[in-house]
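SAMPLE LOG
Freezer: B-3
Tube label: C17
Construct: single chain, 155 aa
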Amino acid sequence: MLVTHPFEPIFDRNSKILILGSLPSVRSRADGFYYSHPQNRFWKLMARLFQTDIPQTIEDKKSFLLRHGIALWDVIASCEIENSADSTIRNAIPNDLSRIFEKADIRSIYTNGKTADKLYRKYNQREAVCLPSTSPANAAWTIEKLESTWKVILP
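STRUCTURE (predicted):
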């Protein structure tokens, strides 16, 4: 099924780091925001890293990201994909990340998982650090193990 990315990137001129996923899941697309599947550990992990409560609403999540200088988007603008399985991605068209780089002072780029990293490197020249996926499909990584690796995003 052809899927077009439904969300705008979250960033402002104060964003210092950029976190890129591959493409929003079926659940995230239905809910209207990034990482909304209840088993995805992204928001729980962010709360642990920044020692705060887990943001609940879309507005709380946007505010959280901007307050911590985090830009959030995905590598893919559109692709063919089956359900939410990154392994089925075909004919990917990348998002134009220059719109973030032109307006924000991005100093570090992180990819959320190997698929996002592989696709990012295919279409972009800037250096990025691949972090283990927060997806429930990456069940081998506990929240504690994710936290110990993802702490590199902290200022």
